[in-house]
């Protein structure tokens, strides 16, 4: 068993905790909490051990939160720390992990230099034995899952990526302007994709005021042969990508996830929007939505497994998919929007 803790119990951390608890090769020691809030109480109620900074123990206990030990003790007893702290906090936390000689998995809000940039589909084997791994961001994970299988079959001359990003998560108090669209040309996403796949890509990102899912479009220019629209069904048949024919709004997809009874509406995979697929000459245009809160959860699990060389790529991804229900969610969504 690999002893794992999760440092940071927000949007990503709480989902990774749930996934770790389902995995028979991973033992969740607990979470590190810094704020004595409702999330700490829910963790108590769900039987998740809560560890806090030594000086904060009295504050947590005064609020009726059961404390199982200090953050320091938690880190000491862990084989791997999944760091799900806010952007750039991971870099500070890394100094502690280095000092304690602990392995860690970081998230996409950290700079690429913090560790091996990881996507299970594209470079699982490269992560074997690495002390520090960075699961790339939600959008980059979406691009890797879509571009990876295409790049294996066809020569890609260039990808032009245009992102429409959600302004905030459902539980955020931070986020975009209420009545404005923000954009950034030459956004970091292209370089982030290149940290995983060797593909020529440039990107622009727009941020808009809504909470559920990013919607990304790509113009893929192929060199030589290119897939037809029908080929996409075969290419992505066994991938962590759902192919939706009939969806026309992101809210329909979220509502379907709610009506299918999925916890937190999590679908864990990008949805390729088949009614956006257009071809012209050597180019194909396509769009996909990204469930930002959940898409990186499978990668966090596979990253820990790869880091400890505990299972091979296929077995790890298959088990993760089973545990998270991805094997059912994909055909269900494809049927709903068929
Ligand atoms: P979040 O703000 O929801 O959660 C972060 C948690 O970390 C909070 O509970 C906070 O109290 C806690 N924290 C504070 N200080 C800490 C410290 N020093 N060490 C550890 N934890 C600390 O953030 P999030 O959305 O879960 O994002 C976490 C990481 O995942 C970021 O790198 C982010 O870029 C990345 N990410 C986020 C999303 C998303 O859509 N939310 C998607 C993919 C990747």
Give a short synopsis of this structure.
This protein is of the alpha/beta class and 338 residues long.
How would you characterize this protein structure?
The protein has 338 residues and is α/β, with parallel strands linked by helices. The chain is built from 13 helices and 15 strands. The protein has helices spanning 11-22, 38-45, 57-62, 71-76, 89-100, 120-123, 138-153, 189-194, 229-235, 250-259, 297-307, 313-324, 326-336; strands spanning 2-7, 26-32, 50-52, 69-70, 80-83, 103-106, 116-118, 132-135, 156-166, 182-185, 201-208, 214-222, 242-244, 271-280, 283-290. Helix 1 crosses helix 11 (297-307) and helix 11 (297-307) runs antiparallel to helix 12 (313-324). Bound molecules: nicotinamide-adenine-dinucleotide. Nicotinamide-adenine-dinucleotide (NAD) is lined by residues 7-13, 32, 34-35, 84-87, 89, 93, 107-110, 137-138, 169, 292-293, 296.
User: What is the mean predicted local confidence, pLDDT?
Assistant: 97
Q: What's the order of the H and E elements?
A: EHEHEHEHEHEEHEHEEHEEHEHEEHHH
What level of helicity do the residues show?
25-40%
Give the overall shape, derived from the CA principal axes.
Answer: globular
For the terminal residues, how far apart are their CA atoms?
41 Å
Count of individual helical segments: 13
Question: Which descriptors apply to this entry?
Answer:
alpha/beta; binds nicotinamide-adenine-dinucleotide; 13 helices; 25% strand; 15 strands; globular; single chain; 8-stranded parallel beta sheet; 7-stranded mixed beta sheet; 338 residues
Mind sketching the topology for me?
Layout: E1 2-7, H1 11-22, E2 26-32, H2 38-45, E3 50-52, H3 57-62, E4 69-70, H4 71-76, E5 80-83, H5 89-100, E6 103-106, E7 116-118, H6 120-123, E8 132-135, H7 138-153, E9 156-166, E10 182-185, H8 189-194, E11 201-208, E12 214-222, H9 229-235, E13 242-244, H10 250-259, E14 271-280, E15 283-290, H11 297-307, H12 313-324, H13 326-336
Parallel strand pairs: 1-2, 1-5, 2-3, 3-4, 5-6, 6-8, 7-8, 9-11, 13-14
Antiparallel strand pairs: 9-12, 10-11, 12-15, 14-15
Helix pairs in contact: 1-11, 11-12
The structure holds nicotinamide-adenine-dinucleotide.
